[in-house]
Amino acid sequence: MLLELPRFSTPILHQLRDASAGLNARIGLAGPAGLPALGGIRVLPYTSDEAADEDARRLSEGMARKAAVLDLPYAGGKTVVRGDPGNIKTDAFWAALGAGINTLEGRYVGGEDVNMSVSDVEALRQHTPYAVGTSQGCGNPAPFTARGVFNAMKAAIEYRFGAQGFTGIKVLIQGAGSVGHELARLVHAAGGELAVCEIQPWRAARLAQLFGAEIVSPKSLFDRRIDVFAPCALGSVIQGNNLARLDIGVICGAANNQLESPAFADLLHRMGIVYVPDYLANGGGLIAGAEEYEADREGRVFDPIRVDAKLESIAELSASYLKRSAAEARPPAAVCEDVIAERLNRPA
Fold first, then answer.
1. pLDDT at 236
2. Whole-prediction pTM value?
3. Could you give the CA distance from residue 345 to residue 126 in angstroms, rounded to a whole number?
4. What pLDDT sits at residue 257?
5. Structural domain of 223
6. Please, what sign has the CA dihedral across residues 320, 323, 325, 327?
7. Catalytic site residue 89?
8. Separation of alpha carbons 21 and 38, rounded Å
9. Fewer CB within 10 A of the end CB, N or C, for the chain?
């Protein structure tokens, strides 16, 4: 039987258990009923089932919010697996997980997330059609996520500085993983000046060599004037103990939950700092996964050119939300929250 989701309220969990296959998972579903829920699969050694359940609820709600702010016709979903990612990925595990996903009959479509790879998605696809991120589809979502952040950043730069493009704009990227690296490449190609803050020295050195990025110590991350700060590592980077040090024009990055407290969005606004909410800027991976799902459903080949065209919508939406923010003298995050509430409560 399909789960009947309420209109946006408490996310619902669907428990998946198969001790013989080592499967201890839950699928969180949130958002309007009647829409397929998209969201990745993450595998972590959670300390308890309760912790895993809470993460599934929180993350599925986050995906519903992301789809809403991007005006995508999807609900939010997330699969959270409790287990050691180095040991549980057996054929029996993929078969059990695929069978569990199949019980939702298309209500949920999974993809790559923490401790999942393209090859893992392809192993899962042997047992369910409801997974995206294969090598024949969008694959690793990082390049699409980076492109979405770049588009949002472009809109924010024009809004904050009146600049058409990145020439003369200094961008500090925190985190030089796959998303941060690709974002650096895009900014460099657009003529921007780069700085990078990365706890792995070899990653920072690589961006310095490839793109002429200045290497910034984590200790001095906020001790300089920066036009654009792009958090692309862990969350909660904007904290109460560093707010007073910020000399930044725009915050726009790929990391989730960049603000230690949602209340900081208003403080940043009053400081004259344009904060593009993370769930708006980092939606490129969701857009790419949705395109692969739609291509599969329609029997056509995944087309990255179609994705690139859809990623432009992030720039257009960011520009429209920022314009509304100025007109209403409210933080961009407050405008986005209104849009999310409206879209998550309208008929599917």
1. 87
2. 0.92
3. 36
4. 87
5. 142-282+317-343
6. negative
7. no
8. 25
9. N
The answer to whether 115 and 44 have CB atoms below 8 angstroms apart is yes
Cα–Cα distance measured from residue 224 to residue 32, given in angstroms and rounded to the nearest whole number: 44
Q: Which of 78, 89, 154, 310 is catalytic?
A: 78
117 with 151, same domain? no
Q: Are residues 148 and 56 in the same domain?
A: no
Q: How far is CA 306 from CA 147, 187, 268, 289, 290, in A?
A: 13, 22, 35, 12, 11
Identify the three-state secondary structure at position 219. helix
Task: Give the residue, 7 or 187, on which the prediction is more confident.
Answer: 187
Mean pLDDT of the chain: 93
Residue 8 pLDDT exceeds 60: no
Burial class (CB within 10 angstroms; exposed 0-12, middle 13-18, buried 19+) of 217: exposed
- Count of residues making up the chain: 348
Give me the residues paired with residue 326 across strands: none
Burial of 274 (0-12, 13-18, 19+ CB in 10 A): buried
Residue 341: C-alpha distances to residues 64, 177, 183, 284, 313 (Å): 11, 33, 30, 21, 20
CA distances from 53 to 79, 96, 150, 232 (A): 10, 19, 33, 26
Residues 206 and 258 placed together within one structural domain of the fold: yes
Going by the DSSP 8-state scheme, the letter that residue 213 receives in this structure is P
**Each residue of 258-310: pLDDT tens digit?**
999 999 999 999 999 999 999 999 999 999 999 999 999 999 999 999 999 99
CATH number at residue 272: 3.40.50.720
Report the SS3 class of residue 206: helix
| CA–CA distance, 137 with 287 (Å, rounded to integer) | 12
Q: Is residue 96 part of a domain?
A: yes
Those residues whose C-beta lies under 8 Å from the C-beta of residue 86, and which sit 6 or more positions away, are none
Higher pLDDT, 5 or 119: 119
CA distance 345 to 31: 8
**Is 166 inside any structural domain?**
yes
Supply 255's token pair.
Answer: 């990391």
